[in-house]
Structure formats: C-alpha cells, structure tokens
Amino acid sequence: MKKIYLFFILITAIVFEINAQTNQKIGFGYFGNTLTYPGALVEYELERMFSEKASLPLRADVGFYYHKRYNTGLFADINFGFRRYFDSGFFLEESVGFGIISTFVSSDNVYTVDDEGNLAEASRYATTDLMPSITLGAGYNISKDKDKKKLIWVRPKIFWQFPHKTTSFYNVAVQVGYTHAF
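Above: the chain sequence. Below: its structure as tokens.
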C-alpha cells in the first residue's frame, strides 16, 4: 500500500513539474505543398521555457494537402526545435521532425498493367511513407503576453517521402497559421 501512495505522489509531482515549466498551445493553419496546392493542419504544442527569450517546443501536426492532378496527402508528424523570442514580440524558430504521410491518387480511375500486358483497375491508395522534415519559421506574438501567447507564424518546410517508389522524394511546403496558449 505504501508503494501505491508513493507512486501517486510521484506522478502528481511529475504532472505539477510539467505544468509549471511548459506552455500548452493549440493551433491551425494553411499547409501549401509547393505553396500552390492547398491544405490545412492542426497542431498541439508543448513549449518548455528555459529563459524568458528561449524555449524548446515539441509540436505534433496533423494535416492534409490536395493536388488536383496528382495526389492527396494525409500526414501526421512530430517536430522538436528551438524558438528565440525578441522584446519586440518577433520570434524565430527551427525544428526537425519525423512522421508518416499517406497519399492517394487524385483520379477517378487507376489502372495497372501486369507482366502479360493485361490492364486491370487498381486502388487509388498510393503509399504510406516515412516523413522526415526540416522547418524554419518566423512569427509574432500578437498578445505581447509572455505567459498566454497568441502567435502568428510562417514556416517554410522541406519534407521527404521515403521510400517513395524506390527512392526518396522531397517536397517543399509553406505553413501559415495561428497558435493560442491555454
């Protein structure tokens, strides 16, 4: 019984430690694959502050993009990075990420040809690939509040689809959005 009490005391201390040193945020934004193929994303972020001007954000993104003549992509990734705040409210950030992306061919019908030359209808589902990424960002704290931040941001992103068919395939994307602390 003493071990159970000790366990609950330890868990409570860990929860209060996490809540005291991290800011939780939710956000949403535009996700443009090569800027012109529209999409959207939703994010959840834990930002660990280690000074008034610097933090280590851990962000989980879920989103999609749509390319009318090529494919539709659904993705989920986790990003870890560094953010530097300035007195003016401006901030810069960078992060590396890892996730998965599933793509579906944007067409009514998809066909395959077998070894004998016969044509057959195939699935629109293309692949599920690994999605490593690098993201840079700049933004502004529109609330000017150091604790309950309201951030607007722009994040250029490079992400890879691996293995895409037989090789790695990279994509360039732009994220524009809003994040709110709670």
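The mean pLDDT is 86.
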